[in-house]
Amino acid sequence: MPTLHDTDFYSWTQQQADLLRSGNFAALDITNLIDELTDMGMSERRELESRLRVLLAHLLKWQFQYQLLSNRWKEFEAKSWRNTIINQRTELSILFRKYPGTKRFLAPAIVESYKDARELAAKESGLPIATFPKQCIYSLDQILDDNYYPQLN
Do the beta carbons of residue 87 and residue 148 sit within 8 Å? Predict the structure, then answer.
């Protein structure tokens, strides 16, 4: 039997908020509230990992692919990669401002995201995955520093 949670999520959220405001805790949909709150936290963590994955992949391409490009492509790729790096750092900054609790997941998220970023950089660049270090070579400060771009290899 479908519930309001299943058929009209927005109305369900408003109903639950009204029940909380009125102190009618016995009428709360506790099971779905717990699930939704848990999912909300996981959503922010997924966004953190996703943004780090893209940022790290572009830092890797900047460092390891740029010198291999023809002069014709260097200007285009540098602008494109720089814009992506800027965008991801900006979005991470916004994420930390809106959800400061996500900062505590930053170190493990870098470790987790780097594996995928390495694979993404290899696929996008066409370079062998062995080109890219197995462990993240960028410090937390470097990753988040708006002025940091890796030395070209």
Answer: no
